[in-house]
Design brief:
single chain, alpha/beta, 8-stranded parallel beta barrel, 6-stranded antiparallel beta sheet
Amino acid sequence: MSDQLKATMILDKSYEISDVDKRIYGSFIEHLGRAVYGGIYEPGHPKADKQGFRTDVMELVKSLKVPIVRYPGGNMVSAYNWEDGVGPKKERPRRLELAWRTIETNEVGTNEFADWARKINAEVMMAVNLGTRGVEAARNLIEYTNHPKGTYWSDLRRSHGYEDPHSIKTWCLGNEMDGPWQVGQKTAEEYGKIAKETGKAMKLVDPSIELVACGSSHTEMPTFPEYDATTLDIAYDQVDYISLHRYYGNKSNDPANYLAKNMDMTHFIKTVTSTCDYIKAKHRSKKTINLSFDEWNVWYHSNDQDKEIDPWTIAPPQLEDVYNFEDALLVGSMLITLLQYADRVKMACMAQLVNVIAPIMTENEGRAWKQTIFYPYMHTSIYGRGTSLKPILSSPKYDSKDFTDVPYIDSAAVFNKEEETVTLFLINKHLDEDIPLQADVRSFEGYTLVEHTVLENEDLKAVNTAQRESVKPHNRGEATLKDGKLEAFLKKTSWNVIRLKK
């Protein structure tokens, strides 16, 4: 080990960033591939409940403590008629699903999904179609889901067997409306106007809801961040959040550059935050628009095989990335980034949850298992609730193809005052060297070390399958705590969770 490779940190309970909104650990289920049919829902499966939902999948989702799930899309929502998915199943139409060019059977719709969300103890983040539809369909949907009774749409819900409203609080105004791949693509001016008027109508039906406006689909869009600014300029008074989407891949097989890509995520968050604050200043507003990072993940492994899928089939195996160990490390860094900006990122959705670029995979009629990325997601969701702290970290750095001054160590810390615990999330990105960390944690007087959990593997390309779990965490991390000094040995290319308790 090189003499100069060491990291130091000061962690003080007064260095607060923000309380963590638990919804940053959200996820996403779209009517895409086997996310719904064969994923969460498979009536013929030996472990299906009376409604057809797979209980083995539900148990895995519950172990992630997913607080909110975005539904039903995604690109799919931009040509979706929500009315197709309610009422007696035998009367529901089969439709051409234009975004992913499949057949949508509509066996699962709004009510069934709300039932499933209740079973996994999650809220629903519902998206409305602003591609082929608009104000009318959205106001009818929120009346159907949220109004108690005594009107056409609320009484229709009750006739469908749902006496009580679903009381869905969080709503997305369309999806990626700047994208040429979107059915009903809109300019910023067109989208801003329809978002404003739709949001206005929805809040007249239920003033308690929160609304998420579409921002630019990603940072390479030629209109980024102007699209975000124009949209907010028009719809500022109606909306509460703006949406960010970002996926990363390693097609060039350059792990040092790949593991630095959370720096791009940081740049994205900072740019959109600045854009929101500029429009706030322009409007002389007292309201702050926060960020909903409602699609994020690694996505590239399945690109080639998806080109081979025949169109107009039901629930084909689309976007079924098999994740490896280096993907888990980048996912961990992305989660750390979300915690570092917990003052502005209040919601986030790992896209997606089951089978489709997901931490959970299933076989039709068979097993369900945890992908490599399951573990950093689970650790942060369970232990990352409380107040995000700012660790003062001194880390050695490196340069890669696209990034300069990349810290070898990524870090975030969460202090739970009620439970009197503090959790450090740490990644060592060095491909060859272990790095020792010395941390001054004297402000946590009387705290002891609970555990040092490590996710590591000699093979960056190691994957988990239904037969074998090659990538899983262990509790044999090398950390000690004495007299307010925490010393930890961070293995090369490793994800680390260090927990302290009073």
